[in-house]
Amino acid sequence: MGTWGTAIKSNDTSADTYADFFNLYNEGKEPNEIKNKLISENPNETNDFWFALALALWETKSLPNDILEKIRGIVESESDLKLWKELDATESDIKKRKVVLDKFLAKLETEKAKPKARKRITKKEPIFKKGTCLTFRLENGNYGGGIVLESDFETGFGYNLIVSTRINQENKPTISDFKNCNVLVASFGHWKKEPKITWYLPNRFKKEFSEFFEEIGEIPIEINYNPNTTEMRASFSAGWQHIIEPVNQQFQYEKTHGITKSFSINKLTKRKKWWEFR
Predict the structure, then answer these.
(1) For residue 149, is pLDDT > 90?
(2) Angle CA(200)–CA(37)–CA(244) in degrees, nearest 5?
(3) How many Å apart are CA 54 and CA 58, to the nearest integer?
(4) pTM for the complete prediction?
(5) I want to staple 96 with a disulfide (CB 3.0 to 4.6 A). Which of 6, 146, 245, 261 is the partner?
């Protein structure tokens, strides 16, 4: 995940968590409901995740004491600064980060005068059609792939549900490659053998990410998915690089830990026939 500064939201995890919170908040959902949803959908609950969630809850005057205490523990133990040291951050950045965290904790310990107002939602349309097959370059120079499982025209947010695949080949993948590929199941870091499936917002795509993806064509998707239901475990994000980065990280992880068992894309694209239920 990318980090571009020492501020609370100057990294992909915090920026995405904060954006996800207020997308749901502006939709009319209550802060406590959003909090529970984000926690349940984020297995990798890093410091940056908690910082962004705490900030959003504070801004909506709904920060519970247990999360405030969690932030206080992270800041006062300097565990976040230790992590920055392990990631080879400069001494200058570590000092700046400490100042940021101390001020952040002090802010959370004060009460905000008024909750942040909800913004009026401007209806947006998804970037890609359902069934679109996307290819992109991996760190090893090969082509990878993702498949659009759903296009959301109902909520007004314009989500695309996209699954990252295990396509990893020298030649640009064909439609046949996508029809016969396996899903990327992530086991690196804190991932616990979970398929990488995410709802992506259209907001930042054209300006920041469009150059990284190429459309190959479309395959039929027989299953319908809804971002407002919990029929499948999927996170929400505005960072389209999350389609690509886990593929690179998983393949790197497998060099020393062996290949993680996956499953066919058909399980996500095809409905079972009546005789398959026997």
Answers:
(1) yes
(2) 30
(3) 6
(4) 0.61
(5) 6
d(CA 71, CA 77): 10
DSSP of 57-99: HHHTT---HHHHHHHHHHHHHTHHHHHHHHTT--HHHHHHHHH
Q: What is the pLDDT of residues 215-266, one digit of tens each?
A: 999 999 999 998 876 455 677 888 899 999 999 999 999 999 999 999 999 9
In angstroms, the CA 134 to CA 132 distance is 6
Distances in Å between the alpha carbon of 1 and those of 46, 51, 243? 11, 15, 12
Coil, strand or helix at 109 = coil
Residue pointed to by tokens 């932030």: 71
- Cα–Cα distance measured from residue 214 to residue 211, given in angstroms and rounded to the nearest whole number: 8
Of the listed ranges 109-113, 137-141, 233-237, 240-244, the least confidently predicted one is 233-237
Question: Encoding tokens for residue 199?
Answer: 């709802």
Intra-chain end-to-end CA distance of the chain, in Å: 44
pLDDT digits (tens, 9 = 90+) for 150-161: 999 988 889 999
Q: How far apart are alpha carbons 274 and 240 in whole angstroms?
A: 37
E strands, the chain, in order: 132-137, 143-151, 160-164, 185-186, 194-195, 197-200, 214-218, 235-237
CB neighbour burial string for 237-259, b if at least 16 within 10 angstroms, e if fewer: bbbbbbbbbbbebbbebeeeeee
> What are the percentages of helix, strand and coil residues in the chain, rounded to 5?
40, 15, 45
Q: Is residue 149 a contact partner of residue 163, using CB atoms and an 8 Å limit? A: yes
DSSP conformational letter for 209: I
* Cβ pair 263, 185 in contact under 8 A: yes
- E strands of 143-242, at which residues? 143-151, 160-164, 185-186, 194-195, 197-200, 214-218, 235-237
Is a pLDDT exceeding 70 seen at residue 133? yes
